[in-house]
Amino acid sequence: MEEVRLIEVKEEILADNNKVASGVREKLRNSKTMLLNLMSSPGSGKTSLILRTLEGLKNNLRLGVIEADIDSTVDAEKVAAKGISAIQLRTGGFCHLDASMVTQGVNALDVDKLDLIIIENVGNLVCPAEFDTGAHKNVMILSVPEGDDKPLKYPLMFSICDVLLVNKIDYLSLSDFDMDALKKRVLALNKNIRILPVSCKTGEGIDAWVSWLKEAAAAYIT
Amino acid sequence: MEEVRLIEVKEEILADNNKVASGVREKLRNSKTMLLNLMSSPGSGKTSLILRTLEGLKNNLRLGVIEADIDSTVDAEKVAAKGISAIQLRTGGFCHLDASMVTQGVNALDVDKLDLIIIENVGNLVCPAEFDTGAHKNVMILSVPEGDDKPLKYPLMFSICDVLLVNKIDYLSLSDFDMDALKKRVLALNKNIRILPVSCKTGEGIDAWVSWLKEAAAAYIT
C-alpha cells in the first residue's frame, strides 16, 4: 500500500487559469504522461470507476491518481491501498479544481515514472466544467439513478467532455431511465462525445472503457 | 395549468448576502409565508419530492415554487402543470442561489396568497450550502445510489440542514448503502437534524415528511 500525501490547496485568484493549464499540459506532454480529468455529481461512481480502471490497466500503464475532496482522504486511501501513487488535494470549501491546484498535485508526483494520471475532480456537475485543469482529456460519469434529463440542466459539462460513461446500468431494471433519449440529448450538445454504458459494480462495459483509454494514452506516451 | 414565469438572474457581487437574506425572511414572516430551501446533488429527486409534497399538502396549504436551473424550464413546467404558481430562475452558469436571486423570485409571487414557498436550488452539494437564501428552513435530499459516505465529503451541507430526506429507498435492495452508518455520520455533524427515509417513486415515507412540513409551517402561517 502506498502512503497518501495530503495537500491543502487554495485558489490563486489572480492566476491566469488558462495559461497555467497550458503549462501543465505542456509539461506532461514532455514527460510522455497523459492527464485525464474525471468529473461527475457526488456519488455517481468516480472512485469506483478509478478502482476498476486501475485493475484493467495496471499491467499496461504506470498510473497515478490525484484525488480532490472538500474534506476527508477516504478516496485516496482506497487508491493507495491498490499500490498506486495517490495525492489527496483538500480544497477546503472549494467546489472545483483549477489548473494551479492540479499543478500542486502534479508536482507532488514523479511524472517521469507515470504514463497516466487521473484527476478525480470535486463531485459537482456545475463548477468543474468551467475551469480548464490542464488535462488532455475530460471524462464525465452520469449514473442511471440521476436521470436521463441531466443534459438539459447541466449542458456545459456534457459539451466539454470527450467521453460520457453512463454508470450503474445494473440499476436500469428498477428505473425509467431512457438511454436513447439520453444519447439524443447528449449528442445534440456534443456530436463528438463517446458514450459508454458501464457498471462499476458488475464490471459490464469496463473493457470498452479501458480499451478507449489505452488507445487515447498511446498518443501521449510514445 | 399555471403559466411558468422565467427570470434570468445574475449575482449582485457587492450585495451583502446575509443582510438581503434577513430581509427576505422578515418580509415573509410579515406575510405569514414560510420559505423552504431544498438542496441536493443533481438527480437526487428534488422535483419528484416537490411534486409528491404538492399532492400531500394541496388541501392544507397554499403553495408556490421557485425553481432554479442553469438552463431549461422543465422542472417549473412540471410544477405549473399541477396548478401551482411556479417561477423559474435561470442562473446562467451559476452554481447556487443567493438571497438577491431568491428576492427576485419572491417578488414575482403574490406572497399574501401563499402559505409556503419551496425553493428548488441548483443541483449541487457544495456551493448552495455556503449561501443563505433567506429561507426559514433548509432541507436536503441524499439518494441511496449516491452512497452512505457523502457526509464525510460534503460536511457543510449536512451541517446546515434542518431535515435530511434519504430518497430512493426503493433502491436499497440493489445497494450496499448502510443506513445506520449514514445516520451516525450525519448526527456527528448535526445532532438536531431530522432524518426521514422516503421513496418518491413508491410514496413510502412521504406522509412523515408532509407531517413534519405541516407542523413546521404552522409556526409561520398563524
Describe the structure.
The structure is a homodimer of 222-residue chains. With 222 residues, the first copy, chain A, is α/β, with parallel strands linked by helices. The first copy, chain A, has a single domain (15-221), classed as Rossmann fold, CATH 3.40.50.300. Helices cover 36% and strands 20% of the residues of chain A. Chain A has an 8-stranded parallel beta sheet with strand order 1-4-3-5-2-6-7-8, sandwiched between helices. In chain A, β7, α7 and β8 form a beta-alpha-beta unit. In chain A, α1 (17-30) runs parallel beside α4. In chain A, 50% of the residues are buried. The interface between A and B is medium-sized, with 35 and 35 residues.
List strands and helices in order, with pairings.
The structure is a homodimer of 222-residue chains.
Chain A: E1 5-8, H1 17-30, E2 34-40, H2 46-57, E3 63-69, H3 74-80, E4 85-90, H4 99-107, E5 116-120, E6 137-143, H5 150-153, H6 155-160, E7 163-167, H7 179-189, E8 194-197, H8 206-221
Helix pairs in contact in A: 1-4, 2-8
Low confidence ranges of chain A: none
Question: What would CATH call the class of chain A?
Answer: Alpha Beta
Number of alpha- plus pi-helical segments of chain A = 8
Largest sheet of chain A: 8 strands, parallel
Please give the radius of gyration of chain A in angstroms.
16 Å
Q: How many independent structural domains of chain A?
A: 1
Hey, which two chains have the biggest interface?
Answer: A-B, 35 and 35 residues
| Oligomer kind | homodimer
State the CATH architecture of chain A. Answer: 3-Layer(aba) Sandwich
- Distance between the ends of chain A: 29 Å
The global form of chain A is globular
* Order of the strands making up the biggest sheet of chain A: 1-4-3-5-2-6-7-8
Q: What is the H level of CATH, i.e. the homologous superfamily of chain A?
A: P-loop containing nucleotide triphosphate hydrolases
The average pLDDT score of chain A comes to: 91
H/E series of chain A: EHEHEHEHEEHHEHEH
- The structure class of chain A reads alpha/beta
CATH topology of chain A, anyone? Rossmann fold
